[in-house]
Design a protein that fits this description.
By secondary structure, the protein is α/β, with parallel strands linked by helices. The protein has one domain: D-tyrosyl-trna(Tyr) Deacylase, Chain: A (3-Layer(bba) Sandwich), CATH 3.50.80. Strands 1, 2, 3, 6, 7 and 8 form a 6-stranded mixed beta sheet that branches. The chain has a two-stranded antiparallel sheet with strand order 4-5. The termini are close together.
Length: 145
């Protein structure tokens, strides 16, 4: 699985003008299931993200996790993280999991974050979504598992 994390002050995702998910201080997580990804990989990625120390401690050092600060997460599916730009000018997305499997693993990943104790809201898989965020830092981290 691939994920792009952004530490945010707030984030929200809308479909057709209606907010379907939002987060206060915490993380915006754009996630993509890749071909042959498994539930074990989704579980491991969720556990790593939950413990990733990218939030400031009392002296301003990035030494706390989203769990430590009581932050929340907005998880948004984004198959374009699978983009292959090695040939030509048009990205290819054949490395992404098929839609049914991608949706299943996306939902499973969000569930695994919740199991870690994080309040999680999600976007709408496969929808044309508008994502708004205030990046805190800015802190943006690419992860792959």
């Amino acid at each position: 699985m691939r994920a792009l994390l952004q530490r945010v002050s707030r984030a929200q995702v809308s479909v057709d003008g209606d907010v379907v998910g939002q987060s206060g201080p915490g993380l915006l997580i754009l996630v993509c299931a890749m071909q042959d990804d498994t539930e074990d990989q989704a579980t491991a990625l969720a556990a790593k993200i939950a413990k990733l120390r990218i939030f400031k401690d009392e002296v301003g050092k990035m030494n706390r996790s989203v769990l430590d600060v009581g932050g929340s997460a907005l998880v948004v599916s984004q198959f374009t993280l699978a983009a292959d730009t090695s040939r030509g000018n048009r990205p290819g997305f054949s490395n992404a999991a098929p839609p049914e499997e991608g949706e299943r693993l996306y939902e499973f990943f969000a569930q695994q974050l919740r199991a870690q104790g994080i309040a999680v809201e999600t976007g709408q898989f496969g929808a044309d979504m508008a994502v708004e965020l205030v990046n805190d830092g800015p802190i943006t981290i690419w992860m792959e598992n």
